[in-house]
Structures are given as structure tokens and as C-alpha cells.
Amino acid sequence: MSGLIFFLVLSRYFFGSSMIGILELATIFALWLYMLGAISTSRNKEHLTVDLIETFLTNPRARAFYEVTRSVIVLLITLFMLSLAYHMLGWSLKRPQTTPALSLPLLWQQAPMLAASVFFVAYAVRDILRALAGLNKTQETAEG
């Protein structure tokens, strides 16, 4: 992606015009790169951290409840994103469009958002199940 942008800048500087389609390719690569990075951070549970709240929660049960609440909020947001991506896919299939210079299907630029939102929902469900298990564990510890 960086190489494509560098080549685009050089072609504009040396030749006075940009190479057709380079920006489109760079945009497609950038979207895939950004969404794959977002999937990776979601998988590693690094996508949403509020350290200030976590430092104030010293009670294990309160911390476990906070994890459940945070996981549910993330799930709701990711379900909304999945809904938007699904509607975007439906629109793209109904009215297929292409990029102006290379005539690539616009779906190639939209696919990373759909793929990422599917992974986000899956990881959010995973986080809820882990948080509920942690909450159950703290409850058993308090009782026993």
C-alpha cells in the first residue's frame, strides 16, 4: 500500500500526472489492511480498554460484572455494524458498481467491512461467554 502511494506521488512529481488506478488499488489494500488489523485487535481483546474504570474496581465480583457489561455493549455495537455491512452488501448486489479507473467491483472495497463485522460479532460472543464464566467463578468463590 505504501509502495503504491509512493509510486503515485513520484509519478505526479516526475510525469505531471498520476498513473490511472493506483489510488484505487491503494484504497482497496488499505481497507483490507485496516480491517485485518481491527480483527486482530478484537481477537486479542485489545479493541476496547478503559483502564481508569478497571483501576478503581478492586472487588473481583465488581470487576467481573464490569467485564460482562463491557462485553454486552461491544456485542450490541458489533451487531449494529454487522447490520450496516449486511445492508451495504445487499445494496451492492442489487446495484453493482465499479471503480472509475480500473472498473473493479466496488464490492472488493466493501468486503473487508463485512468480513470484519462477522469476526467482531464472533469475538464479542466469545468475550461474553468468558465474562459470564468469570462472573460465575467469582460467585462460586464468594459462596464457597
Which terms summarize this structure?
144 residues, mainly alpha, 5 helices
Estimate the global geometry from the Cα principal axes. elongated
Helical stretch tally: 5
- Give the assembly state of these chains: single chain
Radius of gyration: 22 Å
| Low-confidence runs | none
Mean pLDDT: 89
Q: How much beta, percentage-wise?
A: under 5%
Question: How far is the N terminus from the C terminus?
Answer: 56 Å
The helix fraction, in percent, is over 70%
> What is the chain-wise order of helices and strands?
HHHHH
Commentary on this structure:
- Helix content is 79%, strand content 0%.
- By secondary structure, it is mostly helical.
- The chain is elongated, with a radius of gyration of 22 Å.
- The mean pLDDT is 89.
